[in-house]
Design goal:
Layout lengths: L1 H7 L11 H9 L62 H20 L11 H32 L10 H13 L3 E6 L8 E6 L4 H9 L24 E2 L37 E3 L5 E7 L9 E8 L13 E3 L13 E5 L10 E8 L17 H9 L4 E6 L3
């Protein structure tokens, strides 16, 4: 509420009580022992305040249960009177907000690793420590995005933010308006000094998706009530990865939460081998798909190769090869559109990484036309896992 008042002059949002539940849930999750290693969907993980007298405060609500931004339970969105006094309003909507933002945190790295309760087996100690560091850094980044988005809202008396999608726009602006984000922090105290590094402009697609799964964008009519998940963007071209396609937030082309470790071939955020195939002669075969509502036109394909240098070594990418297909990718995730690229300079028999980008006129990738892929493995994970236009495939030595 202090953040709200400092930016908008109001203690509460018009569309939800506050982002307090979200900030608390995200900050507390990285070191939580409530979720067992084999069950990141444990109900205990999503109980925001289990000790309060009024039970049921959750940050894991699902649109399929009617807990959605455009649904019948969120009637606050239909109140355009904008009362100045909002105390004790929007607690259900606050849970929609915390569920949306907690999904964002999970998809950007919050589900990395197990939640290993001490004592941790010695063989897993190094990996467990690295996983905790990823979760903490992801929480730091998400907390920054939320706080900057609140700051971007501005005075309520000048440009009031009345709807959840206005807050999503502020979150996206917070991401796109940030360059290289490097901070040092002593929080939590028991973790010592941590160096956190993220790049802005790589999270906006996941931000939009996280709220879509909570039922935002379910209708283009402001006063229409629609229960369930929201509609995808008009165009959302993608190359399939290995994420599961079943479950509450799983679907082809989604950003369903999975562990986001670096340097592990076959990780679920990496490309589906059926969708990306590289022959020994350098012929690359792709399957392009589109979960949007309109055909994806104005296509451009790019591909790079880098020899495997190990998880600690920087990657050196080849010059890109490119192609501009004349075809379009049909809407609604219909049959995949096949595409081929020739001439990839792959050294015969050597292990390495293949990176592919598909750009559409209405849905460009987060890797600009003149940019080279990141050399650092951790940057590569953050870039690819948060952009379904990009596909990373490991090719073992032959």
């Amino acid at each position: 509420h202090v953040l709200n008042h400092a930016s908008t002059g109001e203690l509460e949002f018009a569309f939800a009580h506050s982002a307090g539940d979200a900030l608390g849930a995200i900050a507390a999750d990285p070191l939580s022992v409530l979720a067992p290693a084999d069950d990141p969907e444990s109900p205990l993980r999503f109980q925001t305040y289990p000790w309060i007298e009024v039970p049921g405060r959750l940050h894991g609500r699902r649109a399929r249960d009617g807990d959605c931004w455009c649904g019948r339970r969120n009637l606050l969105r239909l109140d355009f009177s904008a009362p100045l006094e909002r105390h004790h309003h929007g607690y259900f909507e606050e849970q929609l907000l915390s569920s949306s933002l907690f999904r964002l945190y999970r998809s950007l790295g919050g589900d990395t690793g197990g939640y290993l309760q001490p004592p941790v087996p010695p063989a897993l100690a190094d990996q467990a420590g690295a996983d905790v560091a990823i979760r903490l850094a992801t929480a730091d980044w998400c907390l920054y995005l939320v706080m900057r988005a609140i700051a971007l809202l501005g005075p309520d008396s000048v440009a009031p933010a009345r709807t959840a999608d206005q807050f999503v726009s502020a979150l996206i602006d917070a991401d796109l308006g940030t360059g290289l984000w490097q901070v040092q922090t002593h929080w939590p105290l028991e973790q010592g000094l941590r160096n956190v590094r993220r790049r802005g402009g790589w999270s906006h697609k996941v931000i939009r998706w996280a709220f879509e799964r909570q039922g935002l964008y379910a209708t283009e009519q402001p006063r229409e009530t629609v229960d369930g998940t929201g509609l995808p963007p008009a165009v959302d071209v993608f190359i399939a990865d290995c994420r599961p396609v079943t479950g509450a937030d799983a679907q082809p082309g989604s950003y369903a939460p999975v562990p986001l470790r670096q340097g592990l071939p076959g990780a679920p955020w990496q490309a589906d081998p059926q969708a990306v195939q590289l022959d020994d002669d350098g012929l690359l075969r792709l399957q392009l798909r589109n979960r949007g509502r309109l055909p994806a036109a104005g296509l451009r394909l790019r591909a790079w190769w880098a020899d495997d240098t190990g998880p600690q070594g920087d990657l050196s990418w080849s010059a890109p090869i490119g192609l501009t297909p004349a075809a379009v990718v049909p809407a609604g995730d219909a049959a995949p559109l096949p595409a081929e690229l020739h001439g990839l300079p792959r050294p015969a028999g050597r292990a390495g990484w293949l990176l592919v980008a598909v750009d559409a006129a209405a849905d460009p990738s987060n890797l600009p036309a003149a940019a080279r892929p990141p050399d650092r493995h951790d940057d590569l994970v953050q870039l690819v896992a948060a952009d379904n236009n990009l596909a990373l495939l490991y090719r073992p030595a032959r």
